[in-house]
Amino acid sequence: MKHTLQQIFRSPKFVVGFSIFAAIVLIVIVYPIFITDPPLGIIGQGTFFPPGIYVSAYDSLGSPKYILNLSDAATKRIAAKLGDQERTDIHDWLVADGIPESEIDIHDTEKLLEQWAQNYDPNKKVQGMTFAKQRYYQRLDTSLKGLLSTEGAIIAQKNPETGALEESSMIKQADYVNVSEVASVRFLPFGTDNFGRDVLTELVAATRTSLQIGLVAGLVATLIGLTLGLLAGYVGGMVDDVINFITNLFIVIPSFVLLILISYSVGQEQRGPFLVATVIGLTAWPWTARAVRAQVISLRNRDHVNLSKLSGHSIVHIILTDILPYIASYVIMALILQISSGILAEAGLSILGLGPKTTETPTLGLMMNWAMIYQAHIQGRWWAYFPVLMTIALITFSMNLMNTGLDQVFNPALRD
Amino acid sequence: MPSEKQICLNTSGLTKIYGFGANRTIAVDHVDLKLYEGEVVSIVGESGSGKTTLAKMLLGLISSSEGDIYFQGVKRDISSQKKKQEYWKNIQAIFQDPFSSYNIFNKIDSVLLDCIHMRGGRNLPREKKVEMMTEACSFVNLKFEELTNKYPFELSGGQMQRLMIARIFLLKPKILLADEPTSMIDACSRATILDMLMQLRKEIGMTVIFITHDIGLAYYVSDTVYIMEHGRFVEFGTADEVILHPREPYTQRLINDVPKIYEEWDLTTV
User: How many helices (H) and strands (E) in chain B?
Assistant: First the structure.
């Protein structure tokens, strides 16, 4: 036993797979200890905030100011508002307005802005321009106002008695705040999702639920498959025929279709994560049953089983002590595969909207479902679905890797 | 051959057919076997002649297609687990391959304890059980103190097969079915194991059925020899009759197939 464990942990494939899996499990356990926000708590007003560090604009006004004279600050400020795309758009408008092309130099910022300020008229109708494009030029015009100013900005507060604005402070262009001194900063590594929830917190909670679903589904499937396989293989005869018939029946019916039908008929209200897990388990057992049956048939005529019979042991005793230990390694491998396929099956079901109830717990599949419904993939909001995809891929990859590693330990013919 | 000639085990028209249709194979074909108490019987035949199938039927590990088995004149009844256990108190076996005969997850102690329990010693005090196991091990020249808490695969093939004999020593069955017990053992250990078996037979008065392909071995140990070909007994009689004066060509071939070196030895010793 100790020797086998040593061998397992010397298999590089198993170790890599196990490390990835252990890291995922560790994050799932440790993360909620530090970030105690509810996973489905809505923090963002709006959809799909991009990943990044969010600094409170109001708090940064009150933070200590430091003056840094950076030579490239102005260039960066202009580039952020007036990129290549904007310059080309301005060029197009000016050309449409009748300015000869030779007079426009899009690389000369000052001249370009001067021409723009002189010629742009928000009410002017340009032939063939869509309404959306007109609105875009209006927004562009607003954002360009005061771009070349070297003055700072004045902060004014409303006097509660008179209602008049009173200047409270002035922010110069060279003023900086230190992020660590701003009272409220929130790091959102994966931004927010369509409901304005923190994707990372949600993802951790979803991984936890999905792992639980996979574990329950895998255990249910393995338990049913193991019991039926042992009975069919060892008892044989009529029992074998009946169990084989049922197993073949389940193999012929595509289990995913069965899964969809059962999930649908159970109804939205009753579908908790564990019910979905059980349903997945109930449709996934046939392959385990088949494989176990084949293994048991090859074992049941071995001499040690005959000797155990001659020693007067009962069928249950023989199955538990003379058959089960011999196939234990195989059953563990089947369990790992069943867990990973359980996670995949849940994701598949949830994408179709047949997963667990949507209001209580997130699962990996549900996050994909939400991202898909709110068109994250069309809008290019990769942070709403790509981390979920990666998590699913990593979990199944690590489990398959562990499985291959175990296979090589238990089956020396497969060692490289 | 013993004088009282009490029949211990006999079969009438015992047949085993595997498969059906085109795959139908008759492994054992209407075999009539008579086994007297205290006798040593050899069943000799090539690979695939149905020896092991016959042995498994006699042991009750597989069912027969046709024919009956009578134990001490009464038709054998192994319809329930309890009756099977009762039957297996009387008939035990040693298998060909010692390496696959043991459950690799069970310790040697549990193998021997099973035998004591089967003989109704489940409630004996621990010291008494250890004493019985030590006695059984010393009978086969093994030291129980060295074996306790070891696993069978830590022993050599010869030691494992000797442990099998220790098992029989504890069980004291009426009939022992030895299915090629020495074919996987090296030549040096072979004689020791055979001697132990014969000594054990004398001590507890067992009837022994030897299943072997080695006609020399059959001659060495047995009172009666049955020659088996394609599931049938083609010739049987006392060892001297069958081996020194074979009637069937099959028997002659089996005898001729024994390596010539034996013959040369025989010549030099005569």
Answer: 12, 11
